[in-house]
User: Fold this.
Amino acid sequence: MKRTILIVDDEKVLRESLAALMEDEGFEVLQAGNGREALDIVMARPVDLILSDVRMPEMDGEALLARLVQVAPETPVIMMTAYGAVENAVAAMRTGARDYLLKPVQFDDLLMKVERGLEFRDLSQSRRVMVDQIARDSAFENIVSEAPVMQRLFDQVRKLATVKSSVLIMGESGTGKELFARAIHFNGVTRNRPFVAVNCGAIPESLIESELFGHKRGAFTGAVRDRVGYFEAAGGGTIFLDEISTLPKNVQSALLRVLEERMVVPVGETRPRPIDVRVIAASNQDLEQMVRRGEFREDLLYRLNVVSLQLPPLRERRMDIPLLVHHFIARYTGEMNKRVTGITNGAMRAMLSHEWRGNVRELENVIERAVIFADGREILADDLPFVAAGTADAAGDDLKEALRQFERLHIVHCLRRCAYDKTEAAKLLGIGVSSLYRKMDELEIAKSPEPGPGFPAMR
Assistant:
């Protein structure tokens, strides 16, 4: 398809000359005598690039540019100006123009800048498609859960996505801390800005300040060029600091200064640089205990912990295991082009009773492995790495009974947490007191504490 260029200039002869040149190059060309006419055209149909004069009657080029930044931000604008008014074009570039041309326009210069402008548009559109895809991949729907505790976390994330406050995400390894960080970033005010994920534990101690804050050429052996740090690279967006507990004490002090002053000083420089970035930190360690042991700065913890999210381990939301199993079966059968017809009752019962020390990440890996070996049939208990070899799926396995036993264990667990206070337990379960009593009767749960193992206590 032909690319469409809109030429905006009140000088008709110049406008038509430029139009003829661009048509000879294979472009479709539209013309407007002032900014108001140009704006009407842009609102009525898509345009790939705009060439606009600065000085025009009714609506000049600067006013047009200000409106285009709002209504067509991905459309590159090249401003045309007389030699003596270059400062107007420079000011327009600060407002959002892609480039400028001096009059009289040189044809080679015009073609080069038009080509660059169209490349910029293509990159902008590709980036938008990529951001939209990442946002879909980071949507709440991809965090599979029906557990009440997770639903409350989703509500918190929706509110956090509308602001740029610091967030601290706590949870065991494999509980989805980065997935929650991405949901906060891509579902709110920062979705069109960078998301920079940093695994603090994977960076050598000698390099971590340089990686986070950047460095000046010659600052240390091996610094052969200037380098922008992760904080500046995340400008306007989010930096996700995973395993924040691994930061050395001297880097903790530097990070505290950055959070307080909103400035970074690259290694080897003396002048600070302003930053505009939201910090989301994550840890699988208890930072308050680390503070008491003198391993983590208390003032830094307060700075990071504006809002805290505590992600529960999978063993404390076992009701989600069947959902997660079917979710990952669907994902990996699609990715691997495998034909897995489901999962047997015995295998599901084994999944429900497993400890899941690696949480959702471990479950995902188990299902990925099972899909590889279960092509053309159901996933069997023997396909699960934590089930002893040769274990068969009993013919009488009943999934309803397995889920019934899980429901019973979950209710007993909640009753124990609430010291068998039925009103508090019903609130915790998200059901009415009468419904709780009915369930207790159906599942033969004693009205007072009973012996036997329940679920591990929530921390």
In short: The radius of gyration is 30 Å. Residues 161 and 184 are 5 Å apart (CA to CA).
